[in-house]
What does this fold into?
Amino acid sequence: MKDLKHVRNFCIIAHIDHGKSTLADRLIEMTGTVSKRDMQDQILDSMDLEREKGITIKLAPTRLIYDYEGEEYVLNLIDTPGHVDFSYEVSRSLAACEGALLLVDASQGVEAQTLANAYLAIDNNLEIVPVINKIDLPSARVEEVKAEIEEVLGLDAANCPCVSAKEGINIDQVLKAIIEKIPSPKGDAKEPLKALIFDSHYDNFKGAICLIRVFDGQVKAGDKILMMQTGKVFDVTEVGIFVPSTKEAPLLSAGDVGYIAASIKTISDVKVGDTVTLAENSVKAALPGYKEVQPVVFCGIFTVDGAKYGELKDALEKLKLNDASLQFMPEVSSALGFGFRCGFLGLLHLEIITERLEREFDLDIITTAPSVSYKVHKTSGEVLEVSNPSNLPPQVEISYIEEPIVKTSIFTPPEYVGAIMELCQDKRGIYKDMQYLDKKRVELTYIMPLGEIIYDFFDSLKSRTKGYASFDYEFSGFERSELVKVDLLLNGEKCDALSLIVHKDKAYTRGRELTERLKKIIPRQLFEVPIQACIGGKIIARETISAMRKDVLAKCYGGDITRKRKLLEKQKEGKKRMRKIGSVEIPSEAFMSILKLDDGK
Amino acid sequence: MHNTPDIESERAMKEEISIYIHIPFCESKCCYCAFNSFCATKEEQDEYINLLLGEIAKRSKAAVGKVVKSIYIGGGTPSVLDEVQFAKIAHAIFDNFDVYDNAEFTVEANPNSITEEKLACWKSLRVNRISIGVQSLNDRSLKKIGRLHTKQMALEKIKLVRKTFDNVSCDLIVGLEGDNGKTLSGYAKTLLSLGIKHISCYLLEVYDNVPLGTMVKNGKYIPLSDERTIAAFEKLSNYLQDNGMTRYEISNFAFPGYESRHNLNYWQRGEYLGFGISAHSFVDGRRTENAATISDYAKGKITEEILSPREIDEEIIMLGLRCNLGFDITQLQVIDLQKNAFFKDYLQQGILQQQGNLVKLNPMFYRISNTIISNLF
It folds into this structure.
């Protein structure tokens, strides 16, 4: 029987790029969990995408063994994502822990997600241990950052560990702080099993794997378990821990972090946030679980090759197992055929899912421009939720439309305040507050339509502040707004996949920008093709794609048929990502490009 | 002269073959030329001809049981060869192959190297078709692209050739600086008045790695824009057709009965053996290509390609749509055009025309045939 006093469950929370994964690497290395030989940078970021983008998307738990003052401790580390889109993943990790390391960059100081994540940890009653990272940098300002943490977050940072994860400086102080400051888990191995599923993924051999934190009781292979929310019963085939790869264990008991495999074939039978108990000796009350995450950004996903619809469906179902926040339902577009309307937590989430579909499932996909979900009040009194612009009822049937509004906080050095205010105003933002955190950091608060944020806000903010500003937002409700649908006509035919919903004051500009952009993106066609933007029946902008003049191989090179054929095959290959809409061929990027109208300006 | 063989009779005459001989030599290299051709001394030429004769003897096995229906000596400039050199090649062909008495036998010639003696020699060796590289009938234009002849020389030589040969073809380039539909139709008018039976009209292609590419980049040469090139071509094409010629292939116009059997053989996927550097062959379903340098060629290096059923279909479509005969849709084994949305559109829009099993490209759209064909692959 293990002694819970020698167990710590913790996670690391931080703003993106503050060095979370590097610190995790050092902790793993210091505790000898992975030999130096097998060590690869950012070991917990197992997806290629994670390493490439330098971000953590999925939770990745690992068990560290550390000798402290002659006693052996088990430290369960749950790595967390840092990007605003993935705060729900953070809250999932938090529910499995007793404490959190709050990592702050010694030169950047407190950023938008530092604050957001710290608040999440406080809400979850976690013990927060501030850690200041990157003290080796010449620009490090350790004392100021300590003061920031104390002022902005109200945490005691006086004796917090100051480290360089990159250089491996003072990592032992972090381990010491984990053991001394973070409480050991409470729980009773003799009680009926009560475990929280905080993540899941799919294994082709073992079925769905549940990542669990055991609060009470124990579980081992051969047990019959009950998923309290779904009511399903399974036979456990294997339990184990993460070292950080999976390692089978005889049992998991109160306080442990590990996994269960139970030949679960159906992906939807595993609900992240569900409570696992024993079928024959179950607990009465389930754990609180998580509040269900609601997607805020939507787009249509279609395959370039319409015949691959089934493969797309399978791929989305597999991704869904690892990513409870991903939502999708079938959609039919007259332009793009059968596909899915998918809901995401944000634009990065969208980008990651689409990239994974292409890379991991080898699908060629087309995504339509992202949209938010509008509440449409019809004159009949009916209220519709519309996340696909082409589903907007005719203008005459609409009484009014409400759009989602968010509260945005932007952290920035003071010199960019003017530029940011201008941007926010342009995005229909309403100024709420401005706070000087210290001489070098200002927090601006705006109320803004979410639709404006998903439309190019992040890129504009980055370029106007040279990347120095950070931002976070939280949903604050719906507000009535003057919105109209802009439709695109290609060769006189409406292309539903290119429709968008915009504020009426911006409709003309957007319509013009959109037709101009499409003219640039769409190559010459066999015939002249007009591109028109319209509201209702009224044309508001028009461009023309000219007809292709010349595309012919004239000369015969003494019977060199192969060269000709290969040239044409190459030409066909180059058009793989083109979509035929009516008689017009459009590159698939065109559908997404609606979003990036500011390019090239 | 044979009438244009149609697809059916072409099939029935399966045991026929064509022969191509590549003569890579020129008196000088034209600014626009990206072909495998160069200047060489008499000794170098003789050495090459010896290699050629060796290859002809060695590879003639491939044509056992097959009758040669056309011979084409191309280049380069075959007319730079002297009579002895030429005779060696012609004899090698007749000695090693079974050639129809009335086989089409073409020699490519440039005006400046044509002589009365050579013409007589060719005639005696059963040559019956001459293809002259006229390119333009504007002196300034000819000089700028590095041609060695003038308009006057071209006309004199054409007259000279016509004294001996009935079946004479001329090449014209469309897209040269200063040309338009009117000038080109003027050149055509002159050529027709001299009794020319066949005209090949090629679009100027400017490659970066040839002198003309540099000239264009430096603004020293301004070829016609795509728009003007196409407009000029259409005018020229109309002129030729108004005067009784048929556009039997994208770039080729002929009076009835004067279509090039040799070129049609390429478009109709007939068999051919090519000799010399960079020459291509198509025998027993295999396409091969000889090495591009003389040293590799001497070593007998050949690259071979075995066509997949899909590639065969692609060839049928690509080659068929270049010709006024089109292709027979029932010949396709793998590609199902009925399932291709472009195919349906093109038929509806009149871009493609179907009569029974034959599918043709509307000549109005030859200018963008790449797009159309590749969409059917």
The domain at 5-267 of chain B is CATH 3.20.20.70 (TIM Barrel). DSSP finds 14 helices and 15 strands in chain B. Residues 1-5 of chain B have pLDDT under 50 and may be disordered.
